[in-house]
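Task: sequence design from structure.
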């Protein structure tokens, strides 16, 4: 229904093809470009998945495994594998809870904080570049379009969970 309504508004085949090409290219290139931006001698042992875990941990208070797993939409078991690797590489630390020793809190080490900030600078440059090239109206339209796309992906993700 949604697509039909849009077609009535004049979406033509050329726009469809162009949009499809841009989105496919963007999704294909983002991770590769992000990985290359990270590929300094200091952080060459990190993968994109490692970076996403580091980003989910953040610079604030230590977090438990469940909250990090939820933020990443993965199971605690899956996160444990990634976390073991990051601990071994020296990017994160584990600490047992004071009141409940079963709870493990995760925080970034000094090396992990440096990786977080390096990655954050990449994102800041990316967003600033987009903002510098667009008018306020174009930026508003882009934000709306990406929000719609993000919602569609979230709905797709939830419909795939059995």
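Answer:
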């Amino acid at each position: 229904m949604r697509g039909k309504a849009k077609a009535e508004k004049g979406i033509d085949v050329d726009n469809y093809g162009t949009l499809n090409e841009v989105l496919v290219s963007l999704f294909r290139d983002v991770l590769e470009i992000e990985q290359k931006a990270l590929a300094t001698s200091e952080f060459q042992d990190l993968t994109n998945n490692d970076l996403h875990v580091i980003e989910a941990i953040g610079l604030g208070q230590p977090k438990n495994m469940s909250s990090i797993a939820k933020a990443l939409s993965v199971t605690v078991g899956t996160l444990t594998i990634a976390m073991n690797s990051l601990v071994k590489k020296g990017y994160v630390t584990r600490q047992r809870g004071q009141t409940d020793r079963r709870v493990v809190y995760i925080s970034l080490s000094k090396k992990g904080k440096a990786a977080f900030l390096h990655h954050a600078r990449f994102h800041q440059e990316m967003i600033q570049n987009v903002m510098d090239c667009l008018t306020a109206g174009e930026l508003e339209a882009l934000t709306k379009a990406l929000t719609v796309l993000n919602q569609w992906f979230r709905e797709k993700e939830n419909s795939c969970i059995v």
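The helical segments are 2-8, 13-38, 48-57, 65-72, 76-89, 110-133, 136-160.
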